[in-house]
Amino acid sequence: MSAIRRMTFGDNALLPVLYGNHDRNLVRIEQLANVKLNARGNQLEIVGDGEDVVGIAHKALSTLYERLKRGLSVEMADIDAAIRFARAGTENGGEEEGIRTRRRTIQARTPGQRGYLAALRERDMVFALGPAGSGKTYLAVANGVALLLAGKVERIVLSRPAVEAGERLGFLPGDLKEKIDPYLRPLYDALHDMLPAENIANRMESGEIEIAPLAFMRGRTLAHCFVILDEAQNTTPMQMRMFLTRLGEGSRMVITGDPSQTDLPNNQKSGLNDAVETLEHVEGVRFVRLTSQDVVRHELVTRIVEAYDASDKKKKPGQG
Q1: Distance between CA 97 and CA 113 in Å, rounded?
Q2: Do the Cβ atoms of 240 and 120 come closer than 8 Å?
Q3: What confidence tens digit (pLDDT) does each residue in 231-259 have?
Q4: What are 120's strand-pairing partners?
Q5: What's the start-to-end Cα distance of the chain, in Å?
Q6: Which residue range(s) make up the domain with 301?
Q7: b/e per residue, 89-117, with b = 16+ CB within 10 A?
Q8: Among the four 53, 104, 143, 195, which has the fewest Cβ within 10 Å?
């Protein structure tokens, strides 16, 4: 049965931004929520197949309008996030979880990401497992930058296993920086989204931000810092154990990885999978599992992840 709701907005000046150029924002909401929106001045009619569908669009529009009233922008990603939260029965789009950095405020875009940010606030050691584009690394780097800027940690240490080189960096051309940069580029990209380039360079020179391959972590104690191990599915159990025991006084540690994307040899067990089995019930350690529903890249990425997941489930144990 068709359902109708009507909304009235008090501030006409905000409507051009809410509706978008040529009503592009309304079109996006129509597509995502499967409703029809009819705008007349400051009144908006929502028509859909049932109260649940109409309610999702109503909740999302209310969230976006409140964003504008607080002086925040509304971009396509915000619209997608508002629909996700409305569908999950959450009243707002997660603005309270915003992480402030020099260049932008980073917010949860999905209920799963909201839970991840809560874990980052509450625990000293967090494992984030999930597919590409679900925000595992990006949100961890954002949290580390915010803590550094607030003076709550003295350093950020970012690490990845250089698995394609078998950690034998000496066989690669160039000096040390040229050898390891290709493996650490995603971490640089995240940093540049949150800090000006000059600020990053200065902090790296002073040691406040350190980016290093996993092989360089052995023998160290990492105190008063925020430590991230990215692409952790490409560690061996021995490497993972070595890394986790680097945690020092006043530090926090985040381990991110996608168990389905392991680049290790077929007969080598992933250190990430081993850690899940070993530490799942250890007090103080939090495991966060993100899914294809938390992917916030191009919508095609979500469909690709879901297609591969479905294919994996059809394979017999021990295959591929």
Answers
A1: 10
A2: no
A3: 999 999 999 999 999 999 999 999 999 98
A4: none
A5: 47
A6: 99-314
A7: ebeebbbebebebeeeebbbbbbbbbbbb
A8: 104
Q: Quick one: pLDDT at residue 174? A: 57
115 with 149, same domain: the answer is: yes
By mean pLDDT, which of 159-173, 182-196, 218-232 is the weakest?
159-173
The two three-digit tokens of residue 79, written as one number: 């619209």
State how far the Cα of 107 lies from the Cα of 291, in Å rounded to an integer.
18
Model confidence pLDDT, tens digit, residues 174-215: 555 566 666 677 788 888 888 888 998 899 999 999 988 888
Q: What is the mean pLDDT of residues 17-36?
A: 92
Last residue of a domain, one of 42, 68, 93: 93
Q: Which two tokens stand for residue 185?
A: 């580029």
How far is CA 144 from its chain centroid? 13
Q: Tell me the CATH number at 197.
A: 3.40.50.300
Helices and strands (DSSP H and E) totals, the chain: 11, 11
pLDDT digits (tens, 9 = 90+) for 46-84: 999 988 989 999 999 999 999 899 888 888 888 888 888
Return the SS3 of 298: coil
Same domain flag for 233 and 309: yes
Provide the domain count of the chain.
2
